[in-house]
Amino acid sequence: MDKYLVPINPSPQNPNPIPRRRWKRTAIELNGRFEPKYRHEISGLLMQSYSEIGAFPHSYHIDGFPCQTHMNRIGNGSSFVGQVPIGRQGISALEFDNKGIYLVSVTKSGCLTVHDFEALYCQSNKSLLSSKEDEAKHLMHLSLNKQLDVVRWNCANQDEVACTSMKRNEVLIFDIGYVSSEPVEVLRTRQAVTVHGSDSHKGLSDIAFTSIDDSRLLASDTSGVISVWDRRMSILPCLELTTNSHSTVNSIELNVENQVIFGAGKHGVIYMWDIRGGRGSAAFQSHKEVCHPPLTSLKLASMLEKIESLKAQSHIVSKEIHSIDLDPSFPYQLAFHLDDGWSGVLDIYNFKLSHVHCPPPAWLNDSNTSSDLLHLRKPSWLPTSSIYAVGSSSDKGIHLLDFYPDPTSASHVEHSENIESSSGINHQKKQNRFVPLSEGVTACAAHPLNSTIIAGTKHSSLLVISQKPQSF
């Protein structure tokens, strides 16, 4: 039987094996989450997907009558010149709660509104044409008849919102569970006396809550001081952090450990108070010494001059800082935004500028810069992508800025066009994007879960900017 079998040729001693492509599990499968580097790789697609899907004017009512912001909108649209001061218009601040369920906003005309985000988003998908928001879905809408410039959620108690004004020295705290026009608590600053014996005006420009205790609150003022309250003790501050300057501190930010406080001033200076050690170690305990100078201060103009490529193209002068914000993805990145529209990132580990974005100047588009200066523009980080959403100073729209902490970022000071090509990886070219909108933007807030952007405008409207599916 064996003679009928076909003999098998002996295999060579050193065969050349056919290379096999090994299947590898992706990091997403192993970890169950997107890695930061992967998020940055697809950030180009994310930026391209944003567009305006809804616009809601502030045409709300209280007890059947138009609210003050609504009346100002009507007055501004009338033919009577000067009927409504231009400084009394627009959304001055807005912010999401931690879960993205509610959005709170304040207007220059004095309206405090808590919106239901899901209702706002669902209604925006029905019509892009300036539809009216369903007022029945509002959790709260108050017309306080006083200018409002900032609003914040209490990090440790999401039932509370606090608002204040650069025209007053009071912090008004509202409980959203009570539909009342009266705040549950009013905190006041200590009155400063001038050399002539009169009380100096002290408005408040920004608010920050600690995340570990709902009784601790900070607020910056127009006299270069940050007041710190312990609400369990008094309605007056227990501590004052000074800047050694009498100019306005426009924006404050508390780091994630609630140990370092950053402040940004009118003269282009960033201040830092460290309450972990030294003179500031007993900031929330000691009440014998009520004033603390900053640990350090950094002048942005001097830091910008150290960037050779920027200094060669621009004349660097000190500019007012409108806002500072810590990156939720990389908490050592402190973003800043200037009154001329420039934005950038300060690396707080080495005190160097890592990113800078310089848009075209406002005068190229004949923008009304005098009216723009009446609003402090307030940008917002997207929650996971190190993308900074900034209202344009000259156009109707927002800039989406790539501030990822790597030279592959389009705004990195060490960015080079051939960095990605030399890496041998074919990814979409990283670049910033401008999203055109129907109105000029004063403030942005990004949803903490799905990265939908809500923009407040100079005419008190809310614009919904969301991601559209990509076609391949």
UniProtKB/TrEMBL annotation:
<keyword id="KW-0853">WD repeat</keyword>
<dbReference type="InterPro" id="IPR015943">
    <property type="entry name" value="WD40/YVTN_repeat-like_dom_sf"/>
</dbReference>
<feature type="region of interest" description="Disordered">
    <location>
        <begin position="1"/>
        <end position="20"/>
    </location>
</feature>
<keyword id="KW-0677">Repeat</keyword>
<protein>
    <recommendedName>
        <fullName>Transducin/WD40 repeat-like superfamily protein</fullName>
    </recommendedName>
</protein>
<dbReference type="InterPro" id="IPR051179">
    <property type="entry name" value="WD_repeat_multifunction"/>
</dbReference>
<feature type="compositionally biased region" description="Pro residues">
    <location>
        <begin position="9"/>
        <end position="18"/>
    </location>
</feature>
<dbReference type="InterPro" id="IPR001680">
    <property type="entry name" value="WD40_rpt"/>
</dbReference>
<dbReference type="InterPro" id="IPR036322">
    <property type="entry name" value="WD40_repeat_dom_sf"/>
</dbReference>
